[in-house]
Write a structure and sequence with these properties.
12 strands, Aspartate Aminotransferase, domain 2, 3-stranded antiparallel sheet, alpha/beta, binds pyridoxal-5'-phosphate, Aspartate Aminotransferase, domain 1
Amino acid sequence: MNNIPLVDLKAQYRSIKDEIDTAMAQVMANTAFIMGKAVSEFEAGFAAYARAKHAVGVSNGTEALMLAYQVAGLKAGDEVITTPHTFMATVSAFAHMRIKPVFVDIDPVTYNIDPERIEAAITPATKAIVPVHLYGQPANMTAISALAQKHGLLIIEDAAQAHGAAWDGQPVGTWGLLTAFSFYPGKNLGAAGDAGGVITNDDALARQVRLLLNHGSEDKYTHTAIGYNARMDGLQGAVLGVKLRHIQRWTEQRRANAAYYDQQLAELTHVVTPKADPRAYHVYHLYVIQVPSQRDACLKFLHERGIGAGIHYPIPLHLQPALAHFGYKAGDFPVTEALAKRIISLPLYPELTHEQMDYIVQTLREFAF
Ligand SMILES: Cc1ncc(COP(=O)(O)O)c(C=O)c1O
């Protein structure tokens, strides 16, 4: 067996081809290419799924974050506390606004921001905390909410990797003032191109997001704000609307596959499997193992045997060249830095078979010898 991709979008398409083709053909026939009925139907469906009052479709997850930060009132000179162990967009979306990222090291078990370290990072300029529910595991929202309340800080969640996840029985996206999702094709709920969304329970903020994403205009050619073009395509709305019908089943399959990996990898002493916090409903966007020694050789070994493993992410954000002007240096966040050198993301998707996982586990076993 070879060629097991990190994510198999073809397998997913094959499993729902008729539904997708029909939904896309409808958009082609009614030519509602920008926003329109398919998008508003998806928004209503996603709001219900995420248990939020409003869901607003956006052009991608990065724009969703930018709009959320902006309508939350963040401004140049503010400081925002977040994790250095995330995708660049979490921070680039506010660094554009001359807002300073204040990084806090991660918990070595969950790989999410360590709430115990947040308080020491708060200054008079701190305005918000941005927890990232990385790999599909929610951050510790009980602790983060308590800190935000105590210090009068906003919470804006980056749930790009965590559709349907929950902390202590409460869905991600309902803890913060606003939450951004990505529907990038490889995400748990993925479009056929770029797409994203913002959810909130606040009527006025939802309206502001809608206003800004469409050139600051509610009535055509009257612009009450200087906005952007961050609209969702009709075709993406149609595809996402179809996939929303399947997301719960896919999530259960991801969780079952993760449990199978956990079980099969348990005997491999050179591999550390991911740990879900007992309060987390983890949706396993990624299944990330640690290989404490010879990680790069292990990754090469997997690639040579046709396994599409990856690294999410090899360079922590505080060490990214584009963020160098914020003055961070190697050694600032030892837990994150050590983890970045050890992690490997194994293929994980709902359609992955036991046979494929057995092959991946066997390959990892062989690497040890
Ligand atoms: C944690 C995180 N935040 C933000 C984004 C940005 O989303 P998008 O690629 O849809 O712009 C992504 C995905 O790429 C992500 O993984």
